[in-house]
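Hi L.,

You mentioned the student needs an example of a multi-chain input paired with its predicted structure. This one should do, with 819 residues in total across all chains.
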Amino acid sequence: MESILFKDLKLYKLDNGLTVILKRYTRLPIISAQLWVAVGSICETDENNGISHFLEHLVFKGTQGYKMGEISKIVEDYGGVINAGTAKDFTMYFVDIPREGVKEAINILHELGYSAAFPEEEVEKERSVVIEEIKRAEDSPESVLFDNFNSLLFVETPYRYRILGKVENISSLRKEDIVKYYKEWYSPENMALTVVGDIDFGEVEELIAALFGKYRPQEGRKTTLPCLLETLPKSENRLIKKYKVQHLYFLCGFLGAEINSKEQYSGEVLSIILGKGRSSRLYKTLREEKKLVYFIDCGFYPQRGNSIFYIGGVCHHKNFEKVLHEIRVQFERIKNGDIAQEELNKAKEIVKTSWYFNVETVHSQGNLLSWWAMFKNINELKNYISNIENTSIDDLKEFVAKYGQHLLISALQPEKRLFFIF
Amino acid sequence: MKDGATREFLPNGITFIHRYNPELPIVAATMFLKMGSIYEPTKISGVSNLLQSTIIKGTSSRSAAEISEEIESVGGTIKADSTYDYSEISISISSKYFEKSIEILADIFYNPVFPQEEIIKEKLITLAEIKSRQEHIHDVAEDILLPNLYGREHPYSKLDIGTYSTVKSISRKDIITWWRKFYGIDKNARNIILSVVGDVEFDAARDVVLKYFPQLSPVALPALGKIRIDQKEGTIRVKKHFKQAYLMYGYPAPEISRESIKEYLSLKILNTYLGSGMSSKLFELLREKNALCYETSSYYPTRLLSSHFVIYIGLDGTKIDIAKKNIEDIISDLKTQKIENEELEKVKKKIRGQYLLDHQTNMRQAWYLGYWEILGFGYEYDREFVTHIYVFLQKIY
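Structure written out for the whole complex:
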């Protein structure tokens, strides 16, 4: 079944080190073109935290080939969508567009990646846009809670930085800092270009060679990062804050296996058993049977350093300790091997079916291929399903015993006594 | 998008719509019902939503847990929800389990038991959701705007999930009465649509649907009268605890109907022109040029009764006056000047492209086909919508 994703797939590197991923998929006359750069807040320092994201905003302010505002006009005039996102591990730019726009899309990504102009007055203006984005995040309980949880998980490594950064940094970064950072990180061997959809291989390959092939790796480029692995905590830790919420919001969990470990598959399977769907353990126990939460979610999030295993939810503040108790009970049960074979089979079935749902859009195919090509490798992706199939009850036991000993717990609780009574 | 969608009015009264997409071994099925908060008397507002959240919580032969277990153990998902004008139950699953999923859907449809304790639980969760609106600035602004745009009695002035007091007081009996009223066939209304898209052929899908839905009991939908709109004009300022400030403009706007289709399409075009993407007017002027905000856009919900058009911006409190001036300038330009042909040409391409991008999954395709049918335009309108925008624009030039 994985073959759907690997059919009509070309994967190669240009001489300058740029990874190219081309995938022909013609269900609809559209394409997704994506440029991934291995730069994000983990590449930052206390002094420049926020620069990766600020830079991502600024590359849209005009390039050598396009005037300010022209890029989004071109894409949107084709009926396409252009946007970008900054994560801790990477920055990605994408253009999803009807196939007529494929050449423009590739050219635009090339300009964004290599010839941003950073006009002085636009840098000044964009500061207030990003500062507004930070204020918006600080008004959002989900986002504040995530920052608090993050500060519990990460103490030593640059994963501790918030992607949006600090207002002081955004106010003081100079144009020269931005240009230097762009040169240091936006270098071909640090990037992947992916085009998925109704494409002609020959045409696209030629265009990519002509546009992207002319660059040499940037001088002064940075490729080394500080250590990305945290020391696992020795005890449980909590961060409970008052906030303007109506209910208690919580996020708890632990650091999991590092990126190249086979234990990643155990994390994935475990998150499904515990939290995916209405028949998962946490949904069933906490929401349905014990009625302790209004909302519950669980997930496994791989990163270049430690992965994150998390459980999040919303509940009445009086129920919070009971909720935590139930979560601990579930981890204890897993550690003791209290997992039915059918439960494990169901989780595997969910992973297998979700593969089909993942390949339904050209955008999600692009995401999947790009991430694996950049941070792991496509050959391992080919064995993804069999690695999931091989996950045993013992693997899950070991995963929890090794990583899940100490929960890290963050919560936002209502500031005032509530007048509503349930 | 792909053609080849077919519709058949089945002998059981269900409007069956189908498109065969064999590329992947999966299928999506969405059932649309004419049931929603526009049909609800004020004192039970939110009953459709509670009905939908409890209908998948147990039948005479399956418990809530068994329903989800059966679907999820083969990698499928099921959800049921309700909004102002219609309600849905949708299933997404491997095509080899299609028959099983329709059998479960029929069981839910014919034999729900609405267990009291499930009702209590879902009410609690709905009440929590209503309260959570106070945590997000956009929701707070909208909840102030809409009652002033419609008057407090109008269903569009309230949340489709009901108000705090109505949700609290809705009983199991209210839910069952509501189920009897809507879960059957109204011959004149074509009120139930089942849209299936994916790796199941037409005949096979149709036969399965007829096998498990042999007959539906007759119902008579309440008529949708004109509901009085009690609009207030003016500016309302409210102080809240957020770091950001929020400015929201609301205007009455036409419903979707054959009679108002021209106005409807022109406002959809206007909405794209003003609020869609990084090249939209609001984004260009308020964010790119004047750096007033991170977020600004517009929206115009498609509704069966008179709708609304909203423009909004999230910004620093000190910048409200300048943002107001900017937005009001845009609006007065729209009133006095024509949008250039070239601009309109781009807007229509934008609409076509976005429409195509939103039709990639079986689930979205099944949704669109059923959506246009439930709005009374027929499933073909999924294809015609874009052509219509084109033809319509040519007439304005």
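You could point out the following to them. Chain A has two domains: 3-212, 237-414. The two ends of chain A are 48 Å apart (CA to CA).

Best wishes,
N.
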